[in-house]
Predict the structure.
Amino acid sequence: MTLPDMHSAEAIPHEARAEIDRLLASGDLFRYTADSNAPVTLLEAEFAELMGSRFALAVSSCSAALFLSLKALDLPRDARVLIPGFTFAAVPSAVLHADCLPVLCEVGGNYRIDMDDFIAKLPDVQAVIVSHMRGHTSDMDAIMALCNAAQIPVIEDAAHSLGTTWNGEKIGTLGRIGCFSFQSYKMINAGEGGIMITDDADLVARAIIMSGAYEHNWKKHPVLQDAFAAHQNQWPLYNLRMSNLSAAVIRPQLPHLAHRVEDGRRNHDHVADLLAQSPRVNVPAPLPGEVRAPDSIQFNLVDMTDAQVKAFVAAAGANGVKVQVFGASADNARAFWNWQFIPDLPELPATRAMLMRACDVRLPVHLPMHTLDAVADVLLDAIATATTQKAA
């Protein structure tokens, strides 16, 4: 069968169209024009309620949310921030943008933070960003216990983890701040956009001002009035606001999240079970207590040479399934050695070895079962084709 576009984003629900048309007709796209009930304001209230958090701030991207989170923590210049060595380049970029220094931690073959390396590096940092990369959750019980004991704030980069839970708690609510993405390849598609959540009124007040609530526009954020007085004119404005048009696209998708999460988990687990037929494939299992919300699948190639890996990617692509091998894709933004903007970029041998065999295949949550079967068939056939070649 001919496979559909595996990189298609989730469709915008028809419920969004009336509000989008209203906004286009009025030209009222700026979040602070209205005194109350602007689409961005409503989105923040709805998302906070969805997550069980006191406060939410919608911004232009998850990268902006990470940056504002670090600035709102009021860390000293050149503060060291521990991040996993397997994440997207935007994460160390946000750290540098916030006048901090990224400290890279090893990541194991299951895509989770290596706790031994984490423990070794934790005493020398002032903050931690846990990237739940591609929705894979590290040992949050251990991480939070260590960081709480050391009084080190934790920011959760939950760009890929909206809908994931850890021992029944929602990912993004475990740390001091949780940051999410609405970029097109996420569970909720607005093209671009992000949001941060927290229970800390003083912290979110600082973030709101820095996001671009100039003069007294912060008064249009409910509940927080007492938190703002000490911060008026004390913080720079970075103008990272979300527009009403983006919020109008996002809000009607929130009620669809639960079934998207369920469909995504079904799709992932179905393909994972089929790939398990091959001894050349290892799909790392979730950690105990982790219930994921995937819209892609990651797996490791086992006992394959570089030439065979390359042949596998080519064979799968020729039959309609794009496979990204994180470490073997030229200039991949998820391969830490390509983050040449980091001063004194370290070597992470375990993370490098994992990335050279870790594969990524997108599985949009709307794919039907027969398409999932076809995707798995393509991948298994490509492995068989590649491994008939002589070792290089």
